[in-house]
Write a structure and sequence with these properties.
The complex is a heterodimer. By secondary structure, chain A is mainly beta. Helices cover 5% and strands 57% of the residues of chain A. The chains are: A mainly beta, B alpha+beta.
Chain lengths: 169, 538
């Protein structure tokens, strides 16, 4: 199995090539060509016990609507993992910053206010929608400069994480 | 199992606790008018004492832990607290119908509502807390201040009425010392407030404070108070029975707060010595006596850099942070609340109270550190909880539970105990290393930052500390590991991401991932599943 992995939030980070092959009871792993023997066990969902050259690591996986993190002990790493043969992965890798951008709710809540209307021009970081949860209001901001193509959020509506609130193009 | 024990602390006062065997009859059944971790905490105490418990719950809390742990549970209405946990009529009705003899209000909700305490009394149900009279007195800042000044309790020096002239202001400032704060009598929200450092600034400061107060509140009355620079917030636990006995049980350092919400508390305070503790304790007892106080209460103080302390207010309830006091005194405050409320005399005196060891509490909130600590409700998909020496965990959450969006974001409290502060910090850091919550975001990583911070470790904290720490930014890689080690861990993270993809394919997008409920990758949209298929066909 071959993956491209980017660790950390470095913009334009260079993907590392990760190859994983079964070898006996463990795995042979090549990270950017360097061979590493690893033993991996999943004691429960989202938890991985990894032995690398006798070093033991417990890794926890945290996945949200928008990102993937690996927790190695108390250290958290943002990770992007792609299958180079997958069309969707390639599209995602190529098209993140261009084209229409969906603005999604990061957490459950209730829409209390719309800050802009459809067709409004917005700057990167400008507030689009206000969502309330646990008695606190949170401005959901536009990730890029553009025009609000569509406003899906409705005042009073309950939203779940990952729900699309608006599209900015 | 969550309330873990810690070397023999409880043994110390046990002889005193049971010395006074004569007592009135303990309640047989009580109602808990609360939810979350505090409801679970009270239910546990009741089970230990053989008291049956009645829980109440709103529509979104049917599956909450406090309902699962109680003996009886009744629905009280919709999610909104105003229609459920704040409905005195419904709660009293359930108390009557279930035959509960008393109500424990916990903290928040109805706990400091004198009307509710009165309504309980009128309905013949014991309110586990002070009398409505004491609550009313402490609920009003001005009436509390008048009563306390009579009793000789220290307040921040200044005038409690408006300044007539700037000369009067200068005279007062000279007496109490600069810097001083000018405050609008009708003020709030920082309007009409001026910090004045020198005599030269006072006249213009007073004029601008007055005109701002006039514009904002239609009232130009401005008074003067000594400005407490970088104050600490330290509070003293008191306990009083209904027979005139009042004791203090040591202080808690609560300076680490944000948005007027405490985040981490410890006992004892790193700056309070035995002599200061005794003085604060005696003032706190004086405050309680002046209010005819009964049951558990907390007297809050503002403490300046010279360790002068000033009365702020009294909280007429059990505090969130009560466990740190329990650990260093070996007492169970909820047991004592129940015993005192049932009419028992305090089973020990002031001289029996001994402080030993050190305790620190971390409030685990459902908050997103990547999004300015905004609340993050939702379903908990993974929960790995710490245990082991010196660790107590008071929690209201469990794996698979959906944290409702309607209430306070407090999920659990992780409390560390050790022989001294340093050992407590090390134990807590170890426990935080074991703690993992996924599906929702929590502030667990913030505590690694606080406990690893040199200023915190040196005890140099004040009420502005946490904002300053957070302003340093939330690092992209959240880690306390040294740089060289981080590079190794990055490689481990890369390998782990691949191994997860192969061995534990899950659905991207936390909340739907949970719908798979263990049968990993069951949803249609799984990238991983498609990858798995591609692999199988290869």
């Amino acid at each position: 199995m071959i993956y491209e992995v980017i660790v950390g939030d470095k913009a334009g980070g260079k993907p590392q090539r990760l190859e994983l092959e079964r070898k006996g009871s463990g795995w042979e792993c090549r990270l950017d060509g360097q061979a590493i023997d690893v033993d991996a066990v999943i004691p429960r969902r989202d938890v991985l016990s990894l032995l690398v050259d006798g070093h033991a690591y417990e890794i926890k996986r945290e996945q949200t609507a928008t990102d993937l993190h690996m927790w190695v002990g108390s250290s958290r790493f943002a990770v992007e993992l792609r299958d180079p043969r997958s069309l969707r992965s390639r599209q995602k890798a190529a098209g993140d910053e261009k084209g229409p951008k969906k603005i999604v709710a990061p957490m459950p809540g209730r829409v209390v206010r719309l800050l802009v209307g459809e067709n409004a021009e917005v700057e990167a970081g400008q507030g689009i929608v206000v969502v309330e949860a646990m008695k606190m209001q949170n401005e959901i901001k536009s990730p890029k400069k553009g025009v609000v193509k569509k406003m899906m959020a409705r005042v009073g509506a309950a939203v779940n994480p990952g729900d699309v609130l608006a599209i900015v193009e | 199992m969550q309330v873990m024990h810690i070397f023999g602390a409880a043994g110390r006062i046990s002889a005193a606790l049971f010395r006074d065997a004569i007592r009135t009859e303990m309640f047989k059944k009580i109602l808990i008018a609360n939810r979350g971790e505090i409801a679970v905490r009270i239910i546990r105490a009741c089970r230990e004492l053989g008291i049956a418990t009645v829980a109440v719950y709103s529509d979104v809390d049917r599956a909450a832990l406090h309902v699962r742990k109680s003996d009886e549970a009744y629905a009280i209405g919709p999610a909104a607290a105003a229609e459920s946990y704040l409905r005195m009529d419904k709660i009293l009705d359930i108390a009557k119908r279930s035959g509960a003899e008393a109500i424990h209000p916990g903290y928040g909700f109805l706990s400091e509502n004198a009307k509710f305490a009165q309504a309980c009394g009128d309905a013949g149900v014991k309110f586990i807390g002070p009398t409505p009279h004491s609550m009313k007195l402490m609920g009003s800042k001005t009436s509390a201040r008048q009563q306390m000044e009579k009793a000789g309790v220290p307040f921040v020096p200044g005038t409690s009425r408006g300044l007539a002239t700037s000369e009067e202001g200068e005279a007062v400032a000279e007496r109490i010392g600069y810097p001083v704060m000018l405050k609008a009598a009708a003020g709030g929200g920082g309007k009409g407030m001026r910090l004045v450092h020198t005599r030269e600034e006072l006249r213009s400061g007073l004029e601008s404070a007055r005109s701002e107060a006039e514009r904002s509140f239609g009232d130009s009355e401005v008074y003067i108070e000594k400005a407490i620079v970088n104050p600490r917030h330290i509070e003293m636990q008191v306990l009083a029975d209904e027979h005139g006995n009042t004791v203090w049980l040591g202080e808690r350092e609560c300076s680490i707060q944000r948005r007027h919400q405490k985040v981490l508390e410890e006992a004892p305070s790193p700056i309070v010595d035995a002599e200061m503790r005794r003085r604060m304790g005696e003032v706190a007892v004086k405050v309680a006596r002046a209010a005819d106080y009964t049951n558990a209460g907390t007297v809050e103080f503002l403490v300046d850099e010279q360790k002068n302390f000033y009365f702020l207010e009294m909280n007429t309830r059990l505090q969130v942070e009560h466990p740190v006091t329990e650990l260093i005194t070996g007492l169970d405050l909820v047991h004592l609340q129940l015993r005192v409320a049932s009419g028992e005399k305090l089973p020990f005196g002031q001289s029996d109270v001994k402080i030993r060891g050190h305790a620190i509490e971390c409030r685990i909130y459902a908050e997103d550190p990547d999004n300015n600590y905004f609340p993050s409700p939702g379903k908990i998909t993974v929960l790995l909880q710490p245990s082991g020496p010196g660790i107590r965990r008071d929690s209201g959450m469990y794996e698979g539970w959906k944290v409702p969006m309607d209430y306070d974001p407090l999920l659990a409290k992780l409390i560390g105990y050790g022989t001294d502060r340093q050992q407590t910090i090390m134990r807590l850091r170890r426990a935080l290393y074991e703690y993992f919550v996924a599906g929702i975001k929590t502030n667990i990583s913030l505590f690694q930052r606080i406990l690893g911070d040199v200023d915190f470790q040196a005890g140099k904290v004040d009420t502005g500390y946490l904002d300053r720490l957070i302003a340093k930014g939330n690092p992209a890689v959240v880690s306390s590991a040294p740089q060289g080690e981080i590079e190794v861990l990055e490689r481990v993270a890369a390998i782990a991401a691949g191994m997860f993809a192969v061995l534990d394919p899950a659905v991207p997008g936390g909340q739907s991932g949970n719908a798979a409920g263990g049968s990993a990758g069951a949803a249609e949209t799984s990238n991983w599943k498609q990858k798995g298929r591609a692999e199988a066909l290869r």
